[in-house]
Amino acid sequence: MRYQVSHITHYHYESSVTLSQQLLHMTPRSFYTQTCTAHRLEINPAPTESQVNQDYFGNITNYFAIRTPHKELSVHSLSDIELIAKPTLADMHNSRPWESVRDELRLEYNKNAEAQAFLFPSPNIKCSEALANYAMQSFTPGRLLIEAAFDLTQRIYQEFEFDPDATDVSTPLSEVLHNKRGVCQDFSHFMIGCLRSLGLACRYVSGYILTTPPQGQPRLVGADASHAWVSVYSPVYGWVDFDPTNNCLVQQEHITVAWGRDFSDISPMHGIVLGGGHHSLDVRVSVMPML
Length: 291
What we know:
Shape: globular
Order of helices and strands: EEEEEHHHHEHEHEEEEEEE
Low-confidence stretches: none
Mean pLDDT: 93
CATH topology of the largest domain: C8orf32 fold
Oligomer: single chain
Radius of gyration: 20 Å
Strand content: 35-45%
Largest sheet: 7 strands, antiparallel
Distance between the termini: 9 Å
Structural class: alpha+beta
Number of domains: 2
């Protein structure tokens, strides 16, 4: 499958901004099931300086600074992506009991150095007994890791309601659990909190999903916006992605931009501005198949 992604972020400021410094996570990653064949950024006004780097997790970052006065800022990210098929649930029928994976992660850090960074609480994800108890309904004794993780995915989808007005970036997971409402970011943080509370390694993934659904299938929640989901570490199958917002194992409708411990590591665009006063923000995302 080949896709073209357009991600436009537009700020309009009440008064002039004299300095804007921004860090972007908008360049899709390339890995064994995904290749970013082309990417470009169109920034207006033109940056005074810019840099391309990699962060701790290997994500591509773009830094830019604008030192000329401006009342509008537009960032347009354009990407061409190729995806190949990922394993299905039927392909991953021997993922080992979840307790053995937990115990291996506890005792053999040198063999799982990549997973170690994703075992512990992070700025937006606090582990707790309440989260562990919620997860244990899926992670029963001896159950296989992938099977249990998908069951947890299904339960979050069935028991939580998508509500863009219920939360913001500072809403704690205890409140998400109590109200059972939120958006993809909340559901992903919640699922990760559940898994880490059991001693399992999982990471937060940001990206996009296909705007136009296949014929006869429902539109996925989160289309026309950045999306988020969860990646669980399996010693047998590597990192396996689950989408609790859409009740699915991630296959060929999800395009990965970046991964980290939680949203704070990989916000699509964040920085500082001097001046500007009040501002309005418009974000538009389109993901379309390429012929």
